[in-house]
Write a structure and sequence with these properties.
The chain has 14 helices and 25 strands. The chain is an alpha/beta fold. The strands form five sheets. Strands 13, 15, 16, 18, 19, 20, 21, 22, 23, 24 and 25 form an eleven-stranded mixed beta sheet that branches. The longest helix has 22 residues.
Length: about 500
């Protein structure tokens, strides 16, 4: 009999993703054939993976980063069935809908309730394929399973649990962030609002991010069990240094080693793929910035990925950050643009069909790289190694570095005619196409190409790159996953975990 372990949350941000990742690695270390599944994720953090198990590298799509990491923790090859529906917010009232790894423009335009049945069918097909290939599934819910206004369309929590129950022994955990307060009320309320047919699948509660003496929780767990019949299986202490990115959270005002290089990352509204900066925070002092004053004292400025570059550029200018970034660059200090950040560093952006958001003609970028970007479908998805060319100061440590990169973009960027000599090719893809440039912000310093833009993600996730730039080793992903498995083994207990996995 197959086993399905579902992780529900009493709210968004309760810690479902991290707990599911830890469960995947714990099960893999027990020798179980395990894979992650999340029917629908909402995130602008995505990874490029094969469309099918054992699929061609040329046939790729995108899934949420959380399921990508969960697959690696499970020692399973990531592929799109693990997250068949991905919603990528473009503004407060609209999201790009990615189904089985590819953008579906028609569904993206449909109201949520009207499209949910079609998305549920696609998710069920992926679930069935994945369940046929693996003995154990660790299933992550979304938000809360007790959103009674959404229950008829909730295929992510309730629907998936029922699919799992049809073919497997289903056990569910309900995790709550106790650091927010009101944990027992959240747990009891969620339990009370669960549909009757699923309430009996709830094997236990997990109190997450606890700070203090667990003795002080009494008699809360006992009273909760008396009310619900469901035990508190464990209390997980606050674990800030687990080593994986929070799915959609920024770091605090500053993170990383004191006295390290000070890196300011622009936190514009449509920020995407922020998870790639987690390793950087281990070797540099990282600060997310939203105002010109926040840039004071920064050694580097990084413009990250963006889900809508024109909108983020408008926001940048409204905050006065555009002028501050240009001043920083013209002073000879390093500026790095990644994907949408590269496009923003250029001279022009043109989106006649509204591929990147609202349609617009040529708009000025920051003008720090002599490049023009034109947006057009289809989205470019690629995961392949790339290599830097010879780079001048201050990026010379990256010269000839080869690293695993991935691309998720619609913009086609090229040097402006007649200005190619002002920008040096910094990076090219496996086909030899230019996807990175560097330039001097001050024409009086032609040997100092302090502005660097690359169209690829994943730079700071490469240990050799971090060693070249900072001279430091970072913890490997495998060590991070093992640390998470050890963490739940200690605080939930091996006997409890074996019961949950029926092993």
């Amino acid at each position: 009999m197959k086993t399905a372990l579902m992780v529900w949350g009493a709210s968004s941000g309760a810690g479902k993703s991290l707990l599911a990742t830890a469960l995947c690695r714990w099960a893999a270390r027990e020798g179980l054939d395990v894979a992650p599944f999340k029917a629908q994720n909402m995130s602008n953090n995505a990874r490029v993976v094969p469309l099918a198990a054992h699929g061609s590298d040329a046939e790729v799509g995108e899934i949420g980063s959380a399921q990508y990491f969960q697959a690696l923790a499970a020692r399973a090859a990531p592929q799109v069935d693990m997250n068949p529906v991905l919603l990528k917010p473009e503004r407060d009232t609209a999201s790009q809908v990615v189904v089985r790894g590819r953008v579906d423009a028609a569904l993206s335009r449909m109201p949520w309730r009207e499209r949910s049945a079609r998305l549920a069918r696609a998710a069920r097909e992926s679930f069935d394929r994945l369940a046929a290939r693996h003995e154990v599934l660790v299933i992550e819910g979304a938000g809360s399973p007790a959103e009674i206004n959404l229950a008829p369309q909730d295929y992510v929590n309730l629907g998936t649990a029922r699919w799992a129950r049809e073919i497997a022994t289903l056990r569910a955990l309900l995790v709550v962030d106790i650091d927010r307060g009101g944990a027992f009320a959240h747990l009891h309320g969620t339990w009370a609002l669960l549909p009757d047919d699923l309430r009996t699948s709830l094997a236990g509660f997990v109190l997450n991010r606890f700070r203090g003496d667990a003795v002080l929780l009494a008699p809360g767990p006992e009273r909760l069990q008396a009310l619900t019949g469901v035990p508190v299986l464990g209390v997980l202490p606050m674990n800030r240094d687990h080593g994986l990115p929070e799915e959609d959270g920024l770091y605090g005002a500053a993170s990383g080693p004191a006295g390290g290089l000070r890196v300011a990352i622009v936190a514009w509204p449509q920020l995407s793929n922020l998870d790639e900066f987690q390793p950087l925070a281990a070797v540099a002092s990282v600060r997310w910035v939203r105002s010109a004053g926040d840039l004071d004292g920064a050694d580097w400025i990084v413009l990250p990925g963006s889900k809508q570059v024109s909108g983020d550029l408008a926001w940048l200018k409204a905050q006065g950050l555009d002028a501050a970034i240009v001043r920083h660059a013209r002073a000879g200090r390093p500026v790095l643009g990644i994907c949408g950040g590269l496009q923003a560093l250029g001279a022009l952006l043109d989106d006649p069909d509204g591929v990147d958001g609202e349609a617009h003609g040529p708009l000025p970028g920051l003008g720090l790289l002599p490049l023009a970007t034109r947006y057009a479908a289809p989205k470019r998805l690629r995961a392949a190694p790339v290599r830097f060319a010879h780079l001048a100061h201050p990026w010379q440590a990256l010269s000839s570095q080869r690293w695993a990169a991935y691309e998720i973009r619609c913009g086609r960027t090229q040097s402006i005619a007649g200005a190619a000599s002002a920008a040096t090719l910094a990076l090219h893809d496996a086909e030899g196409l230019p996807i990175g440039w560097s330039a001097a912000a001050d024409p009086g310093q032609p040997d100092r190409h302090n502005v660097l833009g690359i169209a690829t993600h994943g730079l700071f996730e490469d240990a050799a790159v971090l060693r070249a730039l900072f001279g430091q080793q970072v913890r490997t992903l495998d060590a991070t996953f093992d640390g998470l498995a050890d963490f739940i083994d200690t605080h939930l207990g091996a006997a409890t975990l074996r019961t949950l996995f029926h092993c």
